[in-house]
Every structure is written in C-alpha cells, then in structure tokens.
Design brief:
244 residues, alpha+beta, eight-stranded mixed β-sheet, three-stranded antiparallel β-sheet, 9 helices
C-alpha cells in the first residue's frame, strides 16, 4: 500500500479545507479566504516566478482586502529566499501526519465516546469557539462537499472535543481538532483520531492524514503515539505590515 505523497496531501488539504475562491493571476494562485485563516488565504506559485512577479501577487491580495501572504512548499527554496529578501517573515511551519486508517482505528470504539454528526451540533460550535476556531474558520466546513462530517467526543457524560473530517479519493483529512484545556490528557484527542479513522474506512478512505504546526509538540506526540508518521509540509511568508 503506497503512502500518499506530500503533493497528494496538499491537494486533499485544499479540497477538504477550501478558500472562498481561487483564481490564477499570472503565475500565481490567489485565494480569497474570507477571514478563515492562513491556509485558505495564502498565495502559491503556479509555476516559475521571479522577484518581479511578487508585486502582481501582492496587488491581487490587497485588492481582496488581505495582507500579502505566501505558502512555501518543498522545492520552492529560491522563492522563499526572494521573499525573505523582500522583508517577508517566516511563520506557520507545518508538518503533515499520515497513517493507514485501519492502524489508527484500532478496535471498536466505546459506545458514545465519539461519533460523527452532520451538520455540526451547536455544542461542537461552542467547543471550536472555545479553542480559537472562530465563525469564519467554522464557515470553511460548510464549503466542503461530501463525504464530510463533524465529530463529537464525550467524556464523563459531557461534550469533550470536536473535529471535522472529509475525504477525497483514498485519503481522509482531519481538521479543526479541538479539545478544551480542561479535557486534555484524558484520551479525548486519541478518541477523536480513532473516530476519524473509523469514519474514513466507512467512506472508503485508506489513509488518515492531518496537518499540525511544528511548535505544537503535545499534538505531534499524540499523532506519533497512534502510529502516524510525519511528512514535510509547508510554511508561510507574510508581509511585515499590520498584524495578520
């Protein structure tokens, strides 16, 4: 069973956590994020670019009311260096994690410990809001076509965590994993990963994947503990203007 490549993971991430719109401007893909965060707002190079092309992307992003922001992927070291020379600060280094869904799923889940529900329940929105996923980020989920679902975890007969998962082809990608501080270190995150894996298999996905920032070491330890392996991801360069 061949593991999904970094390029495949990037494509599934875009399909399962999409911008409001995306269009080609010269040699760039320009995304309108609608306030949904860096992932849906960053421009990417759609071919070889030069220093002279950067201004075109900047103008297109500013026309959308967005601060210029670029996503850099492996192999784009020259563009990364050029943006650094233009004063762009590096931020948001991110790693993909992947594993066969069957290996993460394990055995049967305890009854009502975590389950899928679409559309998301109000309590899920509350959990996401509590953990920093504001309304604009939650709106991204509504743009995703099926198969997709929200996940709710329960602990001690109360809502304990939430997530969103969607599949494209044989890859299911988990987003917006949210566990409040009061519920951490109690197995809630692991339960959500297992629930996502069970849902993935039920929807004919072979692989479960997600993206995590490099500085989120507790989350990375959790992912490794269930057998997920890291894959080189991406980072951003942002224009040194007002706070993003």
């Amino acid at each position: 069973m061949r593991a999904p490549t970094q390029a495949a993971l990037l494509a599934v991430m875009e399909a399962t956590w999409p911008p409001l719109s995306a269009r080609r401007v010269g040699r760039w893909t320009i995304r309108a994020g609608g306030g949904g965060g860096k992932r849906v707002s960053a421009a990417t190079a759609a071919g070889p670019v030069t220093s002279a092309d950067i201004g075109q992307a900047e103008a297109a992003m500013r026309a959308l009311g967005q601060r210029p922001l670029f996503m850099l992927r492996p192999g784009e070291e020259a563009l990364d260096a050029t943006l650094a020379d233009h004063g762009y600060a590096r931020t948001g280094a991110t790693v993909f994690y992947r594993a066969p869904a069957a290996s993460v799923a394990g055995g049967r889940l305890p009854r009502l410990s975590a389950f899928p529900h679409w559309p998301p329940l109000a309590v899920m929105a509350d959990l996401w809001a509590e953990t920093g996923h504001d309304a604009a980020r939650r709106a991204v989920m509504g743009r995703v076509g099926p198969p997709r679902t929200a996940l709710l975890a329960r602990q001690d007969d109360r809502a304990a965590g939430a997530g969103f998962v969607a599949a494209r082809g044989d890859i299911a990608m988990l987003h917006a994993l949210a566990v409040p501080l009061s519920m951490r270190r109690r197995g809630v995150g692991r339960g959500l990963l297992r629930a996502a894996a069970h849902w993935a298999m039920a929807n004919r996905a072979v692989w479960l994947a997600l993206a995590a920032t490099r500085d989120n070491t507790p989350a990375q330890a959790l992912f490794v503990s269930v057998g997920m392996e890291p894959v080189e991801g991406y980072h951003y360069r942002r224009c040194p203007e007002r706070p993003y």
